[in-house]
Amino acid sequence: MEEIKQGLDAAKIEQLKKNLKLTYKERFEMLTRLYKIQQTMNKATIIHKQLIAK
Q1: Cα dihedral sign for 17, 23, 26, 32?
Q2: From CA 45, how far away is CA 42, in angstroms rounded?
Q3: For residues 27 and 38, what is the distance between their CA atoms, to the nearest angstrom?
Q4: 10, exposed or middle or buried, with CB in 10 Å at 0-12, 13-18, 19+?
Q5: CA separation for the pair 15, 7 (Å, rounded)
Q6: Which segments in the chain show pLDDT lower than 70?
Q7: Which of these, 14, 23, 40, 54, has the minimum number of CB atoms within 10 Å of its CB?
Q8: Would you state the pLDDT for residue 17?
Q9: pTM of the model
Q10: What does the H/E/C string look like for 15-52?
């Protein structure tokens, strides 16, 4: 179990290092993409229609 946790921590550190190499423009574009997704999800509603079997 400890090995898995260390592997995940190493993977997170690698991801953070990779993200630090992004330009400000790339960071901004990613942020706006995530913001748009968040706005869409906040507006979404789940509609359930009862199935009518014939």
Answers
A1: positive
A2: 8
A3: 16
A4: exposed
A5: 12
A6: 1-5, 54
A7: 54
A8: 87
A9: 0.52
A10: HHHHHHCCCHHHHHHHHHHHHHHHHHHHHCCCCCCCCC
